[in-house]
# Entry
Amino acid sequence: MRGAFVALSVMLALPAPAFAQTTPAAEPAQTPTNDAQPQPGLFNSFLNLFNPNRMADDGPPSPDATPYKVEIEVKDAGRSLREAVEQASTLESLSHRPPSGAAGLVRRALSDRNNITAALYGEGYYAGLIRIRIAGAAPEAANIFEIVEAARKNGPVPVRVEVEPGPLFTFGKVAILDARTRRPLPDAPPLRRLRLEPGEPALARNIVRAESALVDHWRACGHPFARVASKDVVADHATSTLDVSIYVEPGPVATFGRFTVSGADFLTPRFVEDRIEIAPGTPYSPEVLNRLRRRLIGYEAIASVRIEEADKLDPDGSLPITLVVEARKPRYVGFSGTYSSTDGSALNAYWGHRNLFGGGETLRLDAQASWFGEKSEAVPDADPFGYKVSASFVKPGIYTAQDDLVAQAAVLREVTNAYVREAVTLLVGVRHRYNDNLSLQVSIDLEESRVEDTTGTGDYGIAGVPFELTYDTRDNELDPSRGVRFAGTLEPFAYLGEAGAGPVMVKGVFSAYHAFDEDKRFILAGRVAAGSVFGADLTDVPPQRRFYVGGGGSLRGYDYQSASPRNADGIIIGGRSFFEASLEGRIRVTDTIGIVPFVDMGSAYISEWPDFDGLKYSAGVGLRYYTAIGPLRLDLAFPLNPGPDDGDFGLYVSLGQAF
# Structure
């Protein structure tokens, strides 16, 4: 049945600064009359809303537990504000765990005043009224304990929380000042970037974020000891505005000094030191340190790199840095599996070593068994069973710290709709890293294979020298939001099956990512790929080295290889060129859920260069579930101009974005 395409894969391997402000009243009679009356502890309660231990279970239930039933009313409030108040309320979040005795319930009610006040601040409300009643009485009532004890005899004690948010405050006067001179800092970031623009809603969380942003700004400018010394926040109830003054100590400008490495005794001597590549006297930059850390943890033997900056500068104005390195477990095993309703299924088991000889060498052995889901169109009587036994090896630093030896070998049997292949392959090369973004790998590509397709069975020998250039500025491999990536390959062949010497293969993939907001909730991602084999006729190019388009990795919604040239009998034969393009809008609905509308296009061609005639198009929508290791992807795609042999839709599940 050629209706739908479904693909599924799984894998398994073993002190706060001072703050001056006013506070919403607990009762109407307590409305503040002095706009600058300080309450230094209250605003910091806003930070406690993000404390993961705030609602921790404190142990077994108390023998003197006092059950209660809480009702929260937030008057004239939208959904966002109501949810913020309810999430901040300890009475609400711990209602399943009754407190100990009447005193415990009273303490919980009193603490909710600060919690809810902080939540109101977070949403920009600084003149709210909070009224809490326990069995009809205020928590401060002189006989509150007796009232609670009497009420509990009749069942859960009724607790009611009424919140009147008051007006939404906006930012008034906002100043970023030097903590020593009390004058404006001329090189401060603009208020718009800090989200503190006058006239905008005065969300307390924006003030908290601005503090971190200010420290990051001056550290990025070469001031390693930058800090926010204090801040003043004054609520003007007459105008419903919030004036903010943030006092910053930028600290001295520094350069990088000596680097010390600790914990790297599991590697050969100077392995880490040779890869630091930061000369003494280089201007201090946190981004330079972050790039160094990312580069080091790119070696599989290294589990983590902690960067410790000295607490003072050396006499020459340089900052000493200590790198604390931790090792990963050297050996690992695991398995993975894939399923497709049209392309078959596969199970893969693997074993690996991350530090084979002590110099960061990696070795991985894979054994895969596959089963093609239906008869191959090109070879209908072929056994659907396939296999692949492979080994990959990387030796870092064979000439310099920037040169790595890369080797891959495999024995395999592959079944597709276009051909059935049995082969032995070998790829050996040297990868040179020019910098953190740019690398070039030069290899020797050897293959000896027997391939059966619609024309019969042929033995093919292949010998090529691929040059692979990679440029990558993405901020995250599994879920990029900014940057670009280009991967290009130029491979001249000394021998390409019946074509002999002379043919050249060239292909490239370019992808770009742009986040429209700082929270990375709206991201536009695009990808373009193209390739060609020139200097040989199609029939002289071995079937496995031709180009095919279709499937989850290229053109979603179409079967694997289906958007490729066919012979007179309608059987896929592949092409000498191809073109693909994709565009995605990645939209985060919540912190963990996102939707991704997308369009794909592409096709392979018999001609040496893509002629863009007969392009296939598809469109669909994806669901993303964001995890700590990357997003889980589910894409549903529909062909827009399907042919008679194409399915109705494609469904794809994997870890990471589509590109």
Q: What stands out?
A: The helical segments are 44-48, 79-88, 90-93, 101-122, 144-152, 191-194, 204-220, 286-297. Residues 336 and 575 are 31 Å apart (CA to CA).
